[in-house]
Amino acid sequence: MSIDEIFTDNETKIFRVTNFYETEEITDWEVEKTKYSLIPDPADDDKLYGAILIVRAFLIQGDKTENCFIDVCLPERISEFIFRMINNEFVIDNAYEKNLKAIPAMASDCYGDYELYYSKENPQIGINVLKEGLSISLKKNVIAEDLGYILTDEGKLEEAIEAFKISEQYGSSSEYTYWELAYLYGELGNEEEETRYLQKFKDSGGKIF
Known about the structure:
209 residues, 32% helix
């Protein structure tokens, strides 16, 4: 199906671009439906390396949201374009050029910059998306880390600790989970746990400069 037909499908959450390397114009993209409920991790399927996904998303404008789609490149988990319907017309916007913020409507098992889910205007939307994803993900660690970073930025330190400890339980993506836990416990005045996680950070290869 063509890219401008994605709004005719009310069920598919994630589409995959099938001709990305054969065309230069986004309007010429062809997509196929997938059954993914979460943005998948290419580490679980080599065929996803270099894939371009079109995923349902929320365009956030203050306290208002608009249903849309965004592109997500794997494995970098980078998004640049927003796809939406305006007055029954299919519109493609460059999010950076138009200063627009949209976040995926589903969490990601693929590691990347947590700010993909962080809207400073309305952070609760991303938090809700990640909490829902956490409940259905089998891997959990990456989603928990995304959640932990946002909660930290929002000053919800105890909730952030809970999130990062879920990542620890399921296998953190890097030693920096321990660094974050050390920082959070330090902010809360728990020197014992701060020291313990700093040691785990160093034992995992982390270096303090």
